Amino acid sequence: MQTFLITGGAGFIGSCLVRQLVARRDVQVVNLDLLTYAGSRASLEEVQDCRSHTFVQGDIADAQCVAKLLAKHQPTIVVHLAAESHVDRSIDSPRRFVETNIAGTFALLEETHNYWRRLPGDRRDTFRFVHVSTDEVFGSLGEEGLFHEHSPYTPNSPYAASKASSDHLVRAYHRTYGLPTIIANSSNNYGPYQFPEKLVPLMTLAALDRKPLPIYGNGSQVRDWLHVDDHAKALHLIATKGRPGEAYCVGGDRQQTNLEVVYAICDAVDKLHGNDVHTCRKLIDFVADRPGHDQRYAVDSSKIHEQLGWRPAVEFAIGLEETVGWYAANRSWASEVTQGVYSGERLGLRESL
């Protein structure tokens, strides 16, 4: 039986992966999460009593904590998801992103390397460290083209720069020390349990409450949307079938402008409420754009398609409508995770010098 150590396993993507792994019934899951504002035990309610799931509140930057976990649970796979991940927050507070995404990843790599090099030969050969990153490390695309595994790194936000730095550290630990690392660069995720600062849950909850829907700039920015369930399945395949030293781009093959996404959210809310067509769209309010806002992200997922047999299964229109329905039915979850930490205010307005 394999043992997975998931860092950031109470967050959006991490909790989805934890739920999927526990449902498999053939693995043990150790879940390490600091429970910052974006991580919540409420996202793990369905697995909290499962004997195959162990939750530990702790920091990836705490070397002693990580070393003890590795020694006690002897994981065969580490999936590193713990990170600060909101671009707007990185504009306001970049130091936190450097401390968590760069220094925290370094500390985790150090302790993982110390653990791995002491494993017996057969277990050392099968061990994997999967680092979950983003397509934002590649910068911004023009009107054509796709990011791929060999795209140059040109991050444009403090968040993207911190993730690019952590990618480089992970790659260096493979090339220098032989640690069997794999990097996954995914496109924008959506789905249940996403903290309501990101576009889909923020717009959905505002629309449900008949509040203004602020759209940055003219809303023409393009993102490639990937359902979190599909992403978690890809991560399991990468962890168990992927090649050490490789990177895999994971995309939803569904490019949409931000405005198109908000239109779709509005239409789903109108459908739930039995409103006339386009009633909710009247709440849209165009506001000043985000500083340094990347225009387009889109990834070429052909490598993971061909090598690991993964393809996204959730069609965007259906997945988004189901996601809107989930937030409508789980208002108490949203209230619980945001209580005292976030009230929907605009972030990322720190002035440039």
Q: How would you sum up this structure, described in words?
A:
With 353 residues, the chain is of the alpha/beta class. It has a single domain (2-195, 224-255, 293-316), classed as Rossmann fold. 42% of the residues lie in helices and 17% in strands. It has twelve helices and twelve strands. The radius of gyration is 20 Å and the shape is globular. The N and C termini lie far apart (54 Å). The relative contact order is 0.14.
Q: Which CATH architecture would you pick?
A: 3-Layer(aba) Sandwich
Gross morphology: globular
- Spell the H/E element sequence: EHEEHEHHHEHEEHEEHEEHEHHH
Number of discrete domains: 1
Q: Superfamily at the CATH H level?
A: NAD(P)-binding Rossmann-like Domain
Number of helices: 12
Q: For the record, what CATH class applies? A: Alpha Beta
Main sheet summary: 7 strands, parallel
Q: How many beta-strand elements? A: 12
Helix amount: 40-55%
Report the structural category: alpha/beta
From the N-terminal CA to the C-terminal CA, the straight-line distance is 54 Å
Percent range for β-strand residues: 15-25%
Alpha carbon gyration radius: 20 Å
Low-confidence regions: none
The side-by-side strand order for the widest beta sheet comes to 3-2-1-4-5-6-10
